[in-house]
Amino acid sequence: MFKPRPTDRASGSAARPRATLSIAALLLASASVWTSAQSEKKPYPIFTLEQYTNMMKTAGRNFGGVNVSLSKGEWETAKEQLTRAREQIAITATFWKDNKKEDALRMLRTALTKMDDLDAALSAEKVDGERARDLARQVNAACQSCHQVYRDQDPATKAYRLKPGSVG
């Protein structure tokens, strides 16, 4: 329990206002920093071409793994890889929004819907392997529709890339 020292009683009235002023100054400084942070608008996150390219390559590898797992009847592994591929593909919406490509966003939504259908099939108590493989083909077709419009193969390196001039 706090017992004031004898000298505190004499200066108690002066000590309390000093402590109160210190707390008030701290609160005022905190409020100022908070207000300053609130007034600075954070820009919309930009998704660069490099980030997009890396994301698509990784998603492609994951979806390739989905097909391998489906061919082996490894439903749980296929579902895990599908989940990762879907996460990666979904993030690319930012790239298409930044570049004002509504047709690419529509194709992306179609691919995501097909991925969701495949996920539901893989989540069934008893997975119908033929249906799952058919849905994977539908996902692939949805992806290819966008690739036909926006993807190109570099003649020198044979690497896939976004078609030159297809985005701003």
Can you characterise this structure?
This protein is mainly alpha-helical and 168 residues long. It has a domain at 49-162: Cytochrome c/b562 (Four Helix Bundle (Hemerythrin (Met), subunit A), Up-down Bundle), CATH 1.20.120. It contains six helices and two strands; from the N terminus they run ααααααββ. It has helices at 6-39, 49-72, 75-91, 93-98, 102-122, 129-150; strands at 151-153, 160-162. A two-stranded antiparallel ribbon has the order 1-2. α2 (49-72) packs antiparallel against α6 (129-150), α3 packs antiparallel against α5 (102-122) and α5 packs antiparallel against α6 (129-150). The longest helix has 34 residues, at 6-39. The mean pLDDT is 84.
Task: Provide the fold topology.
Layout: H1 6-39, H2 49-72, H3 75-91, H4 93-98, H5 102-122, H6 129-150, E1 151-153, E2 160-162
Antiparallel strand pairs: 1-2
Helix pairs in contact: 2-3, 2-6, 3-5, 5-6
- Percent helix: over 70%
CATH top level assignment of one domain = Mainly Alpha
CATH architecture group name of one domain: Up-down Bundle
Distance between the termini: 70 Å
> How can the largest sheet be summarized?
2 strands, antiparallel
**How does the helix and strand content classify structurally?**
mainly alpha
Average pLDDT rating: 84
Poorly predicted parts: none
Radius of gyration: 29 Å
What is the string of SSEs from the N terminus onward? HHHHHHEE
What is the overall number of helices?
6
How would you sum up the global shape? globular
- Our estimate of the beta-strand percent is under 5%
CATH superfamily of one domain: Cytochrome c/b562
